[in-house]
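Name: Putative amino acid permease
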Amino acid sequence: MFAIRDVRALVSETTQEGHGLKKSVGPTQLTAMGVGAIIGTGIFVVIGEGAGIAGPAVILSFVLAAVACTFSALSYAELASSIPVSGSAYTYTYATLGEIVAWIIGWDLILEYGVSVAAIAVGWGGNLNAFLDAAFGVALPDAIAKSPEDGGIFNLPAVFIVLAITLLLVRGVTESARVNLVMVGVKLAVLLFFIVVALFNFGTGNFHPFAPAGTDGITAATAIIFFAYIGFDAVSTGSEEAKNPAKDLPLAIIGSLVICTIFYVLTAVGALGIASPEQLESSDAPLAAALDQGAGISWAASILALGAVVAITSVVLVILYGQTRIFFAMCRDGLLPQRLAKVNPRYGTPARLTIGLGVLISILAALVPLSEIVKLVNIGTLFAFVLVNIGVIILRRTRPEMPRPYRVPWSPVLPILGVLFAVYLMADLPLSTWIRFVVWLALGLAIYFLYGYKHSRLRTEPAADDGGTPGWARDSTPEVPPGDKK
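Structure predicted for Putative amino acid permease:
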């Protein structure tokens, strides 16, 4: 169960006919994927919550959250450049901690990404209605715009956006990346519009007192704002489709985090320059409220609502893309049905798998209550961060000779800090979230022992190799294959 996959064997499998993905994504598109996944409703909403806790010092909370994310981002960058294979944390764990741990994180990521897409799609429908109301004074009826949990019958907008993105992903990663690049440009333009307007109406009166709740308020706000940065890990799911993964993936992972941090901090400064922390906290749309009350621009609500719709659309695209690639990697390894890992010869994508996941998630978004299960997203992401940071430390010791185009500086200090920060945030999550997490993992382990363990390529293809490199189970020290004693 704790056998690991040899890195060279993992890479060689990406070239197998029918199971290899097309290398067609460049550094700009990869960076846009990271920005697309990070900047969603978080900045449009979470700034109000953070300001209510930390006051104007929420600016420092944004910086602190970015620093905390950087520890894990650096570890993702090293592993993504060293192991350019789909699967992200699942694949990295398979190469460092063993199959059973890889299954646990893969199963965890399937839930994390799937629930994220469903929840974000529901939010997309709500923001679409807000935009229609702000811009045209109309809105969709609740019966087809909300789930049964919220008093509706069927959330049609959520279903529409999931299925539309599914079809785009089936069409090809190049087309998907281009569309995402356009959407990222639009939402950054909307945030830039907000920043410029805020700076022209800027005042310093709302910055006193700067930290009314002291350092405790800053750290408490950081715990909330941290989740506005989550998404950079989705870039690593595109490792196999990157044209030059050794160079482009570290640039995209770290670059997207830097870009988002700059926009987040400038947005926070601008918002507090035109509105008080109390005004931001009391509104469900704090940026629109800041422009309305602070700058007197009431029509700006429609601009920001449009920005939110576009922002959420790109998040759905990147996160659903990430889930399909993780699921694809697990199927290709045999832990889930291998026939689902078949790549469509025309589009170069796992079309059958993508359509299946899209349909399931659209049903989830349309009908299933998400208010509680969505909390699993946070614990799942943090758990992945822990294992990726540990994976860097272990691989440095077990495979010191392995080529590393990018190396985490000051290892193992920075990876350990990444682990500690993730554990700190996990410990602060409610008990109910932990219980749901354990139940989901128990279900996953049952599937692993009933299906995955027996069908794993580590056991069904013991003789596979790539130029003499064993592809079957091995531990951290090379072994001689059975039957070959030379």
